[in-house]
Design goal:
The chain is α/β, with parallel strands linked by helices and about 475 residues long. About 25% of the residues lie in helices and about 25% in strands. The chain is built from twelve helices and 25 strands. Strands 15-14-13-16-17-18-23 form a seven-stranded parallel sheet, with helices on both faces. Strands 1-2-10-7-12-5 form a six-stranded antiparallel sheet, with no helix packed on it. It has a four-stranded antiparallel sheet with strand order 6-11-8-9, with no helix packed on it. The protein is elongated, with a radius of gyration of 28 Å.
Length: about 475
């Protein structure tokens, strides 16, 4: 018999049929085989604790208990009739499923689904492999085993003399009195930045944090560079962290901002990665084309290209990428030339066009604009589609252009002649200025992102729409 995984009417509740190898001595099975099970669709849920429950007599009945963690349940010996009730907020609240579990069956139970079972043999040992540590004193949703609404078909009637139920389980409420378990929340860091604002619009129910006191309702303060602040935060409540916090003063990073850049762009993401591993979170982190040296690459820089940053800012971002990669459930989204709310290149060119100024703009730096709305949309796509974890390049699509070409287009869309924008080289522009080195070729290859089913919006079309706002 081969290992198989079956779906059920409860979303995320999966039944595993396990190969059991028998001989005169007894049997052997692989109760948890990460590689094979994940390949068949089981979440890579990262178990950290294994619990066992001995049921001395047939008829022992436990549950319905709901915990805020995932678990893989099975029997070490004996048989049970097991039943589950979806206790999560949503359309499937109250949905039930049941199956007999012996040594050849295991069931993956997602967070928020109530678990219960009835021993069918004396000496049955029920096993729970869970991905969070049990904390005494916490109360979670529970349900009356005899609730007529869900009508679990217990093989041994609950009023039978064989059945033993704890007083605590007998006192559990009916379904209409249960408060559904809400999903784990999303946390957006750097919520006041251009990207943070776009993410907040796409995730209106997310918790928002930034460095420094809150300036808007719903925002809180969290210093990602402060170990004590990170240790005090309630990470257990979250499932996803969107880390839009960064130090982006590229030129200051070469001097007075160097320590701050390393703390914000390297140490803080690495600390978040450790937290994500400990609490089984998905960490989304945003990186930059500055991790590359700007040498022209046919088709654009790919995700697996060796990093070779030119300046301190790029070095700190590259270190942050490496730190984030240490947690299993991570997405690093590399982007370039970000445009959102507030001061940015496009708004500056629009203002110069309106003021009658004719700027000189570099023509030897080539890449694509990335509008924060597009970066946020790609974030949601990767998370919702459960794309493989790892590094993805994310920019708007279309033909790569120079900064000067984009400036000319902004002037044209603003009613000025594109000829009013003159061109210069990066070397000429930097003469006499204390500037960090810029990569000349910033085009990122988007094939890996496209393979997940995401089609980037054309940068020229997005630019025109942005200027109409």
């Amino acid at each position: 018999m081969d290992l198989t995984v079956e779906t059920t009417p409860i979303p995320g509740l999966l039944v595993l049929r396990l190969p059991v190898h028998r001989d005169a001595r007894g049997w052997f099975k692989e109760n948890w085989q990460r590689a094979r099970m994940v390949a068949l669709g089981l979440p890579d849920f990262g178990p950290v604790q294994n619990n066992m429950s001995l049921n001395a007599r047939r008829g022992a009945t436990r549950g319905v208990h709901t915990e805020p963690w995932d678990k893989l349940v099975s029997v070490a010996t004996g048989r049970v009739f097991a039943a589950w009730v979806d206790m999560r907020a949503g359309d499937t609240f109250g949905t039930t499923y049941s199956v007999e579990v012996d040594e050849g069956v295991a069931v993956f139970v997602p967070r928020g689904v109530g678990n219960s079972y009835q021993a069918l043999e004396d000496g049955t040992v029920y096993s729970y492999l869970v991905n969070d540590h049990y904390v005494p004193g916490h109360a979670y949703p529970a349900l009356d085993l005899a609730d007529p609404t869900v009508a679990i078909p217990w093989p041994i009637p609950l009023d039978s003399a064989e059945v033993e139920i704890s007083d605590k389980d007998r006192a559990n409420p009916r379904l209409d009195a249960v408060v559904p378990m809400e999903p784990r929340k999303t946390l957006i860091t750097g919520c006041r930045g251009q990207l943070g604002q776009a993410l907040a619009r796409l995730y209106p129910d997310a918790d928002l944090v930034d460095l420094g006191p809150s300036t808007s309702p719903g925002q809180r303060e969290l210093d990602l560079t402060d170990p004590d602040a990170l240790a005090a935060w309630s990470w257990r409540d979250y499932g996803v962290v969107l880390n839009a916090a960064a130090y982006t003063a590229v030129d200051k990073a070469e001097g007075e901002g160097r320590a701050t850049a390393w703390a914000a762009n390297a140490a803080a993401p690495t600390a978040l990665a450790r937290i994500a591993t400990e609490h089984n979170l998905t960490l989304v982190h945003y990186s930059t084309d500055y991790v590359f040296d700007g040498q022209e690459v046919p088709g654009g820089h790919r995700e697996d290209e060796a990093m070779a940053p030119l300046g301190v800012y790029g070095q700190t971002k590259a270190a942050g990428d490496l730190g984030v990669a240490t947690t299993p459930r991570h997405y690093v989204l590399r982007t370039s030339w970000v445009i959102g709310e507030g001061n940015n290149f496009v708004r500056t060119m629009q203002r110069l066009a309106a003021d009658g100024i004719s700027p000189a703009v570099v023509h030897d730096q080539v890449g694509r604009l990335t509008f924060t709305s597009e970066l946020a949309r790609a974030t949601r796509h990767l998370l919702d589609s459960a794309a493989p974890y790892g590094v993805y390049n994310v920019t708007n699509g279309g033909e790569p252009r120079s900064w000067a070409a984009y400036a000319k287009r902004v002037f044209e869309l603003s009613g000025r002649s594109p000829d009013d924008v003159t061109t210069t080289t990066t070397e000429e522009y930097a003469a006499g200025k204390a500037l960090s080195p810029r990569p000349l070729f910033s085009t990122l290859n988007l094939d890996k992102l496209a393979a997940t089913g995401f089609t980037p919006a054309d940068a020229d079309e997005a630019l025109a729409a942005y200027l109409r706002l």
